[in-house]
Specification:
The chain is mainly beta. Helix content is about 0%, strand content about 50%. Strands 14, 16, 17, 20, 21 and 22 form a six-stranded mixed β-sheet that branches. Strands 6, 7, 9, 10 and 11 form a five-stranded antiparallel β-sheet that branches. A hairpin with a 4-residue loop joins strand 20 and strand 21.
Length: about 230
């Protein structure tokens, strides 16, 4: 079995009270938790990581935050989460998976408590900051809106953000109910660029992650014959 050794310090330990949630309806109840943060020799650094680790996070995407005590078995811990200082969740699972919205922006920290001794805890992790942006809209452009005789036009799709990391592009044609384009309909030059040799209305959107998170559709481009 494991033996846990706690150091004795000159400073008196400090009790901490948390409430979840902090806002209740009239006649409702709220649960208060009180514990003492202690300095434990086995308490290694607590680290929060994010997956997927996109440079930018957009409203509606699903992410996972993972809380880990470096060098210790995770089965020993209960995990408590705070966003910008407010209690949000407590679980025996180290992963916190959720769909983010702009209201979820903030600094996330986690704390690990021993399952068999809830009064003994690690220190809070360093914060990981989520800045959730509004769902983006794909941008579509064409090198020409008129087909040359016997030729084609090139369409380019992009996501207007400071980083395009992770985006794949999906192509459509038609007006009221756009249908996906296939390799029979267009020549796919690269990720985000195709050529077409017939007239019509064309759209695109970006997607990334698993399950795929899609941007808004672009405005359409109408290609005509010259």
């Amino acid at each position: 079995y494991d033996t846990f050794l706690f150091s004795i310090t000159a400073d008196r330990p400090r009790a901490t009270v948390t409430a979840g949630p902090t806002t209740i309806q009239v006649g409702g109840i709220v649960t208060l938790s009180c514990y003492v943060e202690t300095s434990a020799e086995f308490s290694n650094e607590v680290v929060v990581t994010q997956q997927p680790k996109w440079p930018q996070i957009f409203s509606g995407e699903t992410i996972t935050l993972t809380c880990e005590v470096q060098g210790r078995e995770t089965s020993e811990w209960t995990y408590e989460w705070r966003r910008s200082g407010s209690f949000i969740y407590q679980s025996q699972e180290k992963n916190l998976t959720f769909s983010v919205y702009e209201s979820n922006s903030g600094d996330y920290r986690c704390l690990c408590l021993l399952k068999d001794d809830s009064h003994s805890s690690t220190q809070w992790s360093e914060p990981i900051t989520l800045s959730v942006l509004r769902k983006p809209k794909a941008q579509l452009s064409a090198d020409s809106t008129e087909l040359p005789v016997g030729g084609s036009v090139t369409l380019t799709c992009s996501v207007n953000s400071s980083s395009s990391f992770g985006w794949k592009y999906f192509w459509y044609r038609g007006e009221k109910s756009p249908e996906p384009l296939t390799t029979r309909d267009a020549v796919f030059l690269s990720n985000g660029q195709i050529t077409v040799s017939y007239k019509g209305l064309f759209w695109c959107r970006g997607g990334r992650g698993e399950p795929v998170y899609y941007t808004h559709f672009s405005d359409h481009i109408s290609i005509s014959k010259s």
